[in-house]
């Protein structure tokens, strides 16, 4: 312990108040990144972040957008805030509780400048619910779950509303941004992120969160927009599914965004003192609602589920501050831990009731994690819940989302003979690797090291288990994730004592559950009342009303 304290003391002396940059992908599957073993979609910049830094191989998220963002920004399990269920709809008054200090609020108290570019999705009924009222100095982006890739509209079907509620959801703080129409959303958000970095006073620490639309479906929930469809078809002709070709282009352009952001940090001399985290907020939605043709292979389960395909996050972290670099971290982690880890790394402290744990010693030194379990969720309305315990070994599920509609094994393998080879030189020549290579203490990345780490990350063999579309966990399921990471064998009757223990642990959280708040979409939020723009409609006097 004395050695750990000494090491952390030296770290604090060298790096005072690091910059934090979080880049979030939306609905991107486990198998939609090159580093997990598929060659279908090149992600050289994200791959390079991990190969130079650390792959957080067991970072768990929530099953959908709103809960994951709530967990990240509050350090608390969403079920303690009534946000454990369906993502907030446009026109729904269901805000993040106002008595909770968010990550940007805590960092502002520590002297940080805080900025959000992209998606919010934690309510916009009132101005006090917006990002700039919850700790961010600025926000350029959208308030709801998704927008069009070019028109920046969200259209939503609502009972008793004809036509659907539809309007612009692109704002600079409160101001609608019509002038950006027809600009490709990923490029637009990248440009804004670069502007934030360019304008930042490097004498102050920076917290920048870039929450991309990619690869969530846009517009009316079905669009996967690309700038040049002919280019997409040519470049991804090895993929036979036309919509997955689009997804590949969308994800690759997101990867380009990561490269530009890291390069800008380097050019401004900020990379030396920055922690960069990239993760996807939940698994892909291969079929069904918001279907984006992503792949969670080899896992079962899609977005909305508590199976590995829904909640085992794809996450990489890079910082020159890491003591150990270029490795796979297999310790158990949860999104709530990012809240606590970043605040502690900035010299702050967290409240006693926060669920997140300071994981910096685990991430930086690969020390064993103090976390022994993760509550994946308790959704009392849908009637399903899950917990991982025993240091990450056993997972207990009680029930399934909508009778197991998304519990199957879906998604392309990306490992057939038609896919191109893994482009190792593309990773070495990527903007991310070039920027990192310029740092004085960084060991150069080699092809052999890339191959070695990638082999550790590719679990498509499922530990020799056969990947099947078993019946969903309509009642109780127990999986040994160490032996059976693809959740193929239900041990519910084989290990009754483990089931009993995990049920007790799951039930221990029930007393802390805040009932899920589900409200109908308020038809008075209809953008046609506000110049076809989504507005803070419950602050009606402050909106530009046209009807």
Automatic annotation (TrEMBL):
Residues 18-347 form the Sulfatase N-terminal domain. Its cofactor is Ca(2+). Residues 1-16 form the signal peptide. It holds the Pfam family Sulfatase. CDD domains: 4-S (cd16029). The keyword Nucleotide-binding does not apply. Keywords: Calcium, Glycoprotein, Hydrolase, Metal-binding, Signal. GO terms for molecular function: metal ion binding; sulfuric ester hydrolase activity. InterPro entries: Alkaline_phosphatase_core_sf, ARSB, Sulfatase_CS, Sulfatase_N. PROSITE patterns: SULFATASE_1, SULFATASE_2. Belongs to the sulfatase family. This is Sulfatase N-terminal domain-containing protein. It comes from Rhynchophorus ferrugineus (Red palm weevil). The lineage of its organism: Eukaryota, Metazoa, Ecdysozoa, Arthropoda, Hexapoda.
